[in-house]
Amino acid sequence: MIKRISQMPLYLLSILLLLFTGLPFFIMVNTSFKQQFEFMSSPWSLPENFSFANYALVFESSFLKYFTNSLILAVVSVVLTIVLAAMASYPLSRMKFKLNRPIFLLFTVGMMIPIHTTLIPIYILTSKIGLYDSLAGLIGPYVAFALPVSVIIFTQFMKDIPKELEESAKIDGCGHFRLFWRIIFPLLTPAVATVAIYNFIQIWNEFIFALVLTNSSETATLPLGLREFYGEFSVNVPGIMAALTLGSLPLLLVYFVAQEKIVKGLAAGSVKG
């Protein structure tokens, strides 16, 4: 009983954090079921009559096209980032050579570069190589800016993997390539989940590069597509909230799935044989 009372402040803090983070999401979903006039008259109340008209309006627009473009970009970019970052982190964490430290510092410096300062050179480069207004032209910058933090996460995680596993595999005749994919990479589940969550959210919500490097509705992403709900003299707020609700579902799905992987990976890593 005394232990429960002593934990009351933690419970109260958890409830406050839940309200602080969950209230905006509740308001978004609640508003998506309202008509425009009802939102203007009583924005904070529950809908008098739950209406799915805003969701029907979303599907009548080009929402699915924008959703598909964002999904392709996020999935391809995250997969490439995980593979490239993990492969780059392997020699940085498991091998000793003269340029080990300088290369790792370069990745650290890459995190400090403001991405918006690179808009003009990336635009010029993308135009010259013929990738302007294409999804492929966006994948390159997304992967490039996701690599520094991903390499750091993987490198630090690989350093904690016991070297006895690597030595045993080498005794059995396992080369570096097979050692990485068969032994090291399967142990990176928590790091992979962390990198996937972080980069998927960043890429899914990215706006400025998609605005600069695309110029047509065929290659527009979901953040750009939300502009369809902005009129010349008015804004369809419930329609935007319906689109945001649908657009947030992949983020929630990725987070909950990857969160479970992180917990399982940490639990597995804590067991000593």
TrEMBL record:
Record's GO cellular component terms: plasma membrane
Keyword terms of this UniProt record: Cell membrane, Membrane, Transmembrane, Transmembrane helix, Transport
The ABC transmembrane type-1 domain is annotated at: 67-258
User: Where does the protein end up?
Assistant: Cell membrane
Q: What is its main location?
A: membrane
Membrane topology, record value: Multi-pass membrane protein
Q: Which SUPFAM superfamilies match?
A: MetI-like (SSF161098)
**One of the GO BP terms on file:** transmembrane transport
- Classification via InterPro entries: MetI-like, MetI-like_sf
Q: So where does this one cross the membrane?
A: 71-92, 104-126, 138-158, 179-201, 237-258
What's this protein's family per the entry? Belongs to the binding-protein-dependent transport system permease family.
Which PANTHER family does the entry mention?
ABC TRANSPORTER PERMEASE PROTEIN MG189-RELATED (PTHR43744:SF12), ABC TRANSPORTER PERMEASE PROTEIN MG189-RELATED-RELATED (PTHR43744)
Protein name per its UniProtKB record:
Carbohydrate ABC transporter permease
Q: What is the lineage of its organism?
A: Bacteria, Bacillati, Bacillota, Bacilli, Bacillales
